[in-house]
Amino acid sequence: MDIKTKLISAAESLFDRHGFTATGMDRLTQAAGMSSRTLYKHAGSKHSLIASVLTERDRRFLRRTDVNSVNELFKALEDWVRVEGCRGCLFLRAYGETGGDVPEIAEVMAAHKAGVWSKIQEIIALETNGRGDEQLAEQILILFEGATATAIYRGADAVITARHCAVRLVKQASS
Amino acid sequence: MDIKTKLISAAESLFDRHGFTATGMDRLTQAAGMSSRTLYKHAGSKHSLIASVLTERDRRFLRRTDVNSVNELFKALEDWVRVEGCRGCLFLRAYGETGGDVPEIAEVMAAHKAGVWSKIQEIIALETNGRGDEQLAEQILILFEGATATAIYRGADAVITARHCAVRLVKQASS
DNA sequence: TCCAATGTAAAACGATCATTTTACATAGTC
DNA sequence: GACTATGTAAAATGATCGTTTTACATTGGA
Question: From what superkingdom does this record's organism come (chains A, B) (predicted)?
């Protein structure tokens, strides 16, 4: 495995499991199996490493949610939660831990959310033949965020409930 | 103002604005206007201070959401978000930043979520005359969490959208 | 074969971390 | 008027923070 891939992968696990600020560079180098010199050559800084982790996660997330219906969208989320764990949205967590004060991080978060938003808009337009409006799309977005957050303490079943709800809303808008 | 109240109030602001781990005790003592000795006499430890902040916030939150309909519930949330700011659920943030590894904090989070959950169940039972089931209550919970999360990057309007959606779901279940 | 690149290991950097301690001031109470 | 409680100010604690540096090994192409 490529050395930068290994670094970002190890960092993502630790950040997700223990939090961004609480994860020190020592633990990072140890988990990634490299010296701190190599880490800094590839990552630049901790903030930049966090941004890289999020950028990579965004790519993976979009790939995994490349679907054409709300039903599939929430099934993809359920799958994500079961495979990757449910500790909440890592983008919002990074944003919160840094107070929104680190531009690199705030921008990746915003870009990710913009991506999710336009994916949902695209699906709604597709499924309702243009009958669904912006309001419906935002309701689906809220259910999506809500499922992610609720899954933290109620498990993946929350995503199933969210899916049923979302599918019903779209069906009502289409008829 | 009572000295412990002042401490907890100052701590809540800093934790919410900058994150828990990123907020040092120096900044805490300075903001609370007291020596570190006094702080530790009252708070015990940082973890314990975080738990106290959350416990106090839970009390305030429950007081502000002591309503009898989903419409009022989401109006209360909208008000909360407009007054207190929308940086996400502080309980989930604390839980995430500590990796769920600090029992004091994990327990307050769980207690808070249990409180919200039973409040929603209570309202649903009231509004649907017992026709609403557990599934509906969980949908409302997900909308509630979703509104809180979405408000971080889309503002308080997300809560209005969530309210409209929630009210409609309850109305459909009642008829 | 020499050079540049890329890696490791480990020490050093000054800053900051959470927490404790030492020394002292100001109250209210018996 | 001594005692206890409660506060401040400030230094000290040892650990850990993110980051840089020094010294050295390996390797692949010119």
Answer: Bacteria
Min CA distance, B130 vs chain A (Å)?
20
CB pair distance less than 8 Å for A150 and B142: yes
| CB B33 within 7 Å, strand D | yes
- What's the structural domain count of chain A? 2
Give residue-wise pLDDT tens across range B119-159. 999 999 999 998 879 999 999 999 999 999 999 999 999 99
Kindly report, residue by residue over A28-67, the tens digit of the pLDDT. 999 999 999 999 999 999 999 999 999 999 999 999 999 9
Q: How many CB atoms lie within 10 A of CB B175?
A: 7
In terms of domains, do B68 and B141 share one?
yes
d(CA A9, C1' D19) / Å: 22
Q: Which residues contact A66 (CB under 8 A, 6 or more apart)?
A: none
Q: Give the domain extent around A114.
A: 53-174
Look at residue B52 and tell me if it is in a domain. Answer: no
For A45, the 3-state DSSP assignment is: coil
